[in-house]
Amino acid sequence: MAFFEHDGCTLHYEEYGQGEPLLLVHGLGSSAQDWEYQVPALAPCYRVIVVDLRGHGRSEKPRERYSIAGFAADLAALLERLATGPVHYVGLSMGGMTGFQMAVDHPALLRSLTIVNSAPEVKLRKPLDYWQWFKRWSLMHLVSMGAIGRGLGQSLFPRPEQADLRRMISERWARNDKHAYIASFNAIVGWGVQERIGQIRCPTLIISADHDYTPVALKEQYVRLIPQARLAVITDSRHATPLDQPEHFNRTLKDFLAAVSSTPKDQRVPC
Length: 271
Description:
By secondary structure, this protein is an alpha/beta fold. It is built from ten helices and eight strands. The chain has an eight-stranded mixed β-sheet, sandwiched between helices. β3, α1 and β4 form a beta-alpha-beta unit. α2 crosses α3 and α5 packs antiparallel against α6. It starts with a strand and ends in an 11-residue tail after the last helix. Keywords: Hydrolase. GO terms for molecular function: hydrolase activity. This is Alpha/beta fold hydrolase.
């Protein structure tokens, strides 16, 4: 467990293993804990770095406006502090949005980019978009974080055999600071860099669950805008793919990383 300070906020991160640096970035209301099925699988062959974004986990939760660009700036500062050089970046949901922002704002820091169940913009354009945003915004203000977590657990892990995952998400969500959670949600709404993703030059993998909130067709559209991007669809999965399909997810990610590694094959640790 380690901490660093950037832009007035103390941020928590952890490191495991050695090899090419690999940064794992969580989504809204989550934390570094939610990579628990990935760290043991990746640490034998990568220098795995997990971080709690500001407002999340063990990082400080300043009572201020948050932004996706601000999250990316925090991560850029961490990589500079750790002297990693370019990293393999993996981001889920809001972490994926932050990855898109990193790729256009700090391209020299990325060896590769993996985006999981995310998109390069969250724009409100139709009346239904505004209505959906208003419902979520109202719910966050009216109910407890524990209630949100219980509802989210039912949505993400609906099968009877996923009871432990439902319980875990409910317990972790209840520990969220509501102000920081709402500030992070507000950072997402209206954000976007889709007009710039054609600038992304590093190898890019887009991972989509077949039952994600946003359809596979949306990912297919923006994958075509990124020069070195490809799409992988993971079946029987919802928004939290690294948790509900960890073996399939880990295999897909490791195959991609092996293909884009800059380390000669005869010098790599088997992974």
